[in-house]
Amino acid sequence: MNINTSDKKLTLPEVPFETLQKKAGKPANLCSFLHAVKDFPRYPESAKSRLYWEIMALGVNELRSEKIQRIYGKPIIAYNAFKEFYGIELPIHEFVTNLQAAVYGGEQDNQVIVLIGPKGSSKSQFVKKLKKILKNSAPVPMADGCPQRENPLNLLFLVHEVAEAKALKDGENPSQYRLDILKRFGLETLLDWQNADLVDVLESAGVDASIEGLAKLKDTDELVSAVVYGLGLPRSTRANIGHPCMCCQERALGLYGKEQIDLVEFPVSSFTYKDDQQGSVGICSVKEVQPLNYDIRVMVGEEDISVLGQVDRRSSESVLLNGAYNLSNRGMLEFVEDFKNPIEAHRTKLEATQDKSVPAPDPLRRNLHIDNFIIAHSNAPEFLKFKNKPENEPYLDRFVEIYWIYPLEYSEAKRVIDKLWNKTDYARAGGVHREPLVSEYMAIFEVLTRLEEDPNLKDMMMKLYAYNGDEGRLRGQGVKIDTQSLKKNASPYEGMEGSSPRFSAKLLSALASDSLIKSCKCVTSRALRDRLYERIRLIADEKTQERYRTFVGKYLDDWRRKKLARAVLGALVEAFPEECQSNFDKYVDHAKRTIRPNASSGLSSWSSGPDEDFLRAVESDPDLNITSAQAKNFRSEVVSAINDWMIEHKDVNPPYTCYEPLRFAIERYVCNKVKDTARIISSKNARSTDDNRKLKTARERLQQTYGFCQHCADEVLKEAEETKDFLKEV
Q1: Are 666 and 583 in contact (CB under 8 A)?
Q2: pLDDT at 181 (0 to 100)
Q3: Which residues contact 708 (CB under 8 A, 6 or more apart)?
Q4: Is 271-403 a domain of CATH 3.40.50.300?
Q5: How far apart are the C-alpha atoms of 579 and 581, rounded to whole Å?
Q6: Could you read off the pLDDT of 561-571 as tens digits, one per residue?
């Protein structure tokens, strides 16, 4: 998906509107603003539109998008704006899709987006990212001096009122005054009189598509619609503008002792977004409250009792527009842990979404137009409790529910674990080392706890590999796993429960602290396994406890031993990676010759033809177990995957690690060839000088090539020495 950043929909000047006007020698008022809109149609856009186009301007990650589309079997976009969120592209894609629907005039424009997910699933962090995107956006034009930062287009709703006030004073027809105002705006030449939406509005009112016909419109909404469409602006912009606040009206009409400002020359300035810590300009958060403490003033502002008796109670000066809706106007309103709030806290959402208005504070008896993006987030139990009450149906009808799942790709869960670890001082130089398996070990445990069991799949690790995008096969059958079928069999709530990244972060930090006390300064997978068992014993639910024990004692123990055994054997064998690469190249070469017997393989020349015995030896790997009948299809898959890798990486020399199923088979094949080296480990009582030299070299190779430190290298060699058959099956 290519994003054209030169598109007018995406561009906004980085310099405030009034500064640009000053540089051009023009006034920064409503008239000049209407003319500037032709060049920058994003100037008067809605809050949702601004957020959406800011996200789109940052582009997409096409490579990541392709991978997750293969996993899910449907189009899913990975957006660069959220690249620090790993493994949750699906809910993020759903969020952006609904945001886009709002921008294009869908019902989502009148809805609250609700993120529902388990604890620690990054809901609040995602909302913080949205705030950051807004804060980094260009300055937003506003009606100067407006406490709610009104869209300048809102001032067009005063054309009728200003004209009628002048007509009443002079005893003339208001339409002539409207025509005068519209001509002074320059709309006669500014508007596209052929615009279909503009023509439709004027024809429906029975007037000509001309400046005179526009002035004859008696309905304010029709006049504003015609101007907005004539400027070439989208319907979503029209849907999100409304009558300006009392302050702007009083200044344009000269009410309550205020000096009247000519509507055409009404000044326009700009604002930039600031969050709660910076003063809540266009961004506001509402925390959960107890029912007894709820106060509507938090939402809509309050009466200013400091001026009682000094100003007219009908004047805007009698109130403080400091409510959450007022502060977030033209931006974003966040409800934190929203469904812990009393029902009274949700009532304003009904008007705010459907009517785009909220009540003004007492003593004013009127509504205030608002244009903001409302987002709420909640843990699943509170939302389900709210949802199960029939009386809450009107509120649910205003919600777009997005289930914010944990990452289900263990490679992405690993990145989350690494990100949290790297935030600590343990990750700094001279801090605490982690055995290379630690992050992946913890990530696999996390994902296993989040997956639902599939009745057609006995081995949960196969589902884990399939969800990661690995080309998994049913052990002993050679049959590829259908990832889409697995996802169809799972419930929509898969990923809503399980181990939280916070649990992993706390566990690893505790182990790191212990390592400092022990002076080893290293977290090993063995220590992690033992600590996991301790924590699992604290789980109250016996079924969950037993399930987690199975994950650690069955799946992870087997995975860990094989990984460490391969590292140990690889360290004992000189040039192990080179040996794997050589066998990989040989396999690919021979596989190509079996698929296309008359074609040149491009790697080597084998005059005697393909070595079928070698190919079958690799394919008999117990995790593959490719039969003779399946061999040709598997080899075609391998060749296709390698071709894709070369195209993607623009490299004609693919590494043996580029295709996971074949990688593990090649490593096992090479390890089986050198298993006699296991004698060095097992014969600790009868080692020769040469054996000790090889062990020392292996220890060094574990550190230099495989990422072990001296402590964890010693630990894994010790474990291999103490554990019977540690190197038996790799």
Answers
A1: yes
A2: 96
A3: 435, 436, 567, 702, 716
A4: yes
A5: 5
A6: 989 988 888 88
